[in-house]
């Protein structure tokens, strides 16, 4: 029960609560709870910790799947329980492995094993079985000094620093060992290590990894605020199209205008005249567009969640590459699809875009594009940073209602901007629409659930941060190396 409560409390570290010290205190408490436990009991404690974190951290999936997705309540609960169980298995594995092979207290366990396992298992969680990087520990620190590790080592570097700080805090408050020659030394070392973890990125932040190129560009992000339960109803289609047209008129003067994911509830192929008129109006006002639309390819009978760039310089389509299981595709056998068809449930899949898509340009800039949840996969966006001078993410967080999810998604987008050292324009259907600066700061934002246009000036940036150059390799290889050192020290003990 204590481990479950600690895991639940870790949610306070993330947006919208943003109490980032809890991101150190909760892991430290978990490390203290499993100290000296037999491996199986430690695993159960880890599972309880994970269950507390994800039960309260992903409650909004019920709204997404059942309320708006029309998945039956019982099936929604089955899927949620399965997700929580799977996510809890990672924390259970961490605690089991630590107590199975490094049960004895000491520096090896505290400084090498616990942080190393946390980082590796969180990295694994981000891509195994399609991956679910939501609630990765590092995101909680976007407004803390530890965020300065992001341009250097990425999100997992921030996680590692936080886990090391938690391990150090655990050392500070660990029971004294009466037989130790210098009982106070480990505490002093731990305090010094914690101070270094927080001070080093502050000093490193003084180095400009990226630099401005060209002048600032006026942009506009359109937030239509169309309710998800109304959006795809045929009777509301014309009103939605008119709404976005009217909002775009308010955005004239911007060099680049961005609409959110699947902004208009019509397939792109059925919008030829509408888009042609929009393109002509854009030319008259010297404006380029990036518009979220669903595209259908009759030749292959495929649907794509796309972003249509309309510009003189290099327009075209970007198709979403990383799809959401049970949201955009159903990883189920054929007989279950037949059952879904009989039950009048949605069963058609969105197809994933190619991993190798051309770089699109608008407003004289090369664009790094992501759609919705795929901006949670930071390493998959590194290649485009060699060309992109501006980042865009379009999303439809209306699926999550008035929950913590849109706030946490904004937190993820802020981390991507910080890792890349670039401005990021974020257009969301009903929020949170924002412009994020190259240090992860929110430059401007709109209130949720309000029909509005966000205007701002953004500075194109070029150059590569260390993370953009090397990706996750330094962290993953480093963590593996330290665990290898821990295994070697265990054999020699």
Give a structural overview.
By secondary structure, the chain is of the alpha/beta class. The chain has 15 helices and 15 strands. The protein has helices spanning 2-10, 22-33, 39-57, 61-68, 73-101, 107-125, 150-172, 185-204, 228-231, 237-250, 272-284, 334-342, 405-420, 466-470, 473-492; strands spanning 211-212, 217-223, 256-258, 288-297, 302-310, 316-319, 350-351, 360-362, 365-371, 390-395, 424-428, 434-436, 442-445, 452-458, 461-462. The strands form 3 sheets. Strands 2, 3, 4, 5, 6, 7 and 14 form a 7-stranded mixed beta sheet that branches. A 6-stranded mixed beta sheet has the order 8-9-10-11-12-13, with helices on one face. The protein has a two-stranded antiparallel sheet with strand order 1-15. 47% of the residues are buried.
Short summary:
The protein has 493 residues and is an alpha/beta fold. The chain has 15 helices and 15 strands.
Q: Average pLDDT across residues?
A: 92
Q: Give the N-terminus to C-terminus distance in angstroms.
A: 34 Å
Whole-number radius of gyration? 24 Å
- Provide the helix percentage: 40-55%
Specify the biggest β-sheet: 7 strands, mixed
- List the total number of helices: 15
Shape: globular
* Unreliable residue runs: none
What's the helix-strand series? HHHHHHHHEEHHEHEEEHEEEEHEEEEEHH
Which class do the helix and strand fractions yield? alpha/beta
Count all strands and give the number. 15
Query: How much beta, percentage-wise?
Result: 15-25%
């Amino acid at each position: 029960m204590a481990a479950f409560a600690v895991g639940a409390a870790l949610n306070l570290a993330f947006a919208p609560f943003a109490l980032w010290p809890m991101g150190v205190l909760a892991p430290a408490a978990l490390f203290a709870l499993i100290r000296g436990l037999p491996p199986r009991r430690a695993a159960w404690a880890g599972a309880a910790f994970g269950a507390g974190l994800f039960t309260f951290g992903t409650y909004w999936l019920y709204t997404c799947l059942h309320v708006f997705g029309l998945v039956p309540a019982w099936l929604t609960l089955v899927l949620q329980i399965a997700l929580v169980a799977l996510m809890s298995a990672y924390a259970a594995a961490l605690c089991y492995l630590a107590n199975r092979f490094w049960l004895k207290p000491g520096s090896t366990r505290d400084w090498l094993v616990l942080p190393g396992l946390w980082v590796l298992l969180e990295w694994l969680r981000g891509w195994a079985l399609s991956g679910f990087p939501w609630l990765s520990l590092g995101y909680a620190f976007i407004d803390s000094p530890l965020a300065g590790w992001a341009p250097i080592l990425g999100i997992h570097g921030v996680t590692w620093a936080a886990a090391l700080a938690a391990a150090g805090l655990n050392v500070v408050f660990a029971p004294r060992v009466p037989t130790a020659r210098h009982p106070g030394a480990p505490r002093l070392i731990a305090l010094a290590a914690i101070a270094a973890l927080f001070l080093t990125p502050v000093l490193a932040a003084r180095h400009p990894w990226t630099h401005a190129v060209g002048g600032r560009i006026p942009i506009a992000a359109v937030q239509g605020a169309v309710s998800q339960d109304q959006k795809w109803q045929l009777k509301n289609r014309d009103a939605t199209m008119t709404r976005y047209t009217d909002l775009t008129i308010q955005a004239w003067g911007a060099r680049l205008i961005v609409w959110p994911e699947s902004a208009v509830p019509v397939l792109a192929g059925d919008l030829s005249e509408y888009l042609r008129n929009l393109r002509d109006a854009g030319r008259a006002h010297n404006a380029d567009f990036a518009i979220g639309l669903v595209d259908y390819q009759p030749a292959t009978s495929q649907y794509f969640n796309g972003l249509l760039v309309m510009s003189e310089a290099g327009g075209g389509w970007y198709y979403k590459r990383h799809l959401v299981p049970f949201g955009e595709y159903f990883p189920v056998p054929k007989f279950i699809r037949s059952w879904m068809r009989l039950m009048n449930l949605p069963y058609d899949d969105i197809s994933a875009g190619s991993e190798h898509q051309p770089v699109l340009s608008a407003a004289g800039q090369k664009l790094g594009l992501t759609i919705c949840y795929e901006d949670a996969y930071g390493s998959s966006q590194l290649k485009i940073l060699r060309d992109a001078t501006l980042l865009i993410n379009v999303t439809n967080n209306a699926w999550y209602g008035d929950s913590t999810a849109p706030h946490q998604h904004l937190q993820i987008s802020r981390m991507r901007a910080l890792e890349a050292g670039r401005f990021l324009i974020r257009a969301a259907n009903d929020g949170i629409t924002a412009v994020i600066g190259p240090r992860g700061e929110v430059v401007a934002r709109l209130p949720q659930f309000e029909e509005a246009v966000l205007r701002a000036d953004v500075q194109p940036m070029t150059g590569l941060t260390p993370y953009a150059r090397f990706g996750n390799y330094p962290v993953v290889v480093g963590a593996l190396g330290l665990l290898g050192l821990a295994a070697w020290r265990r054999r020699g003990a």
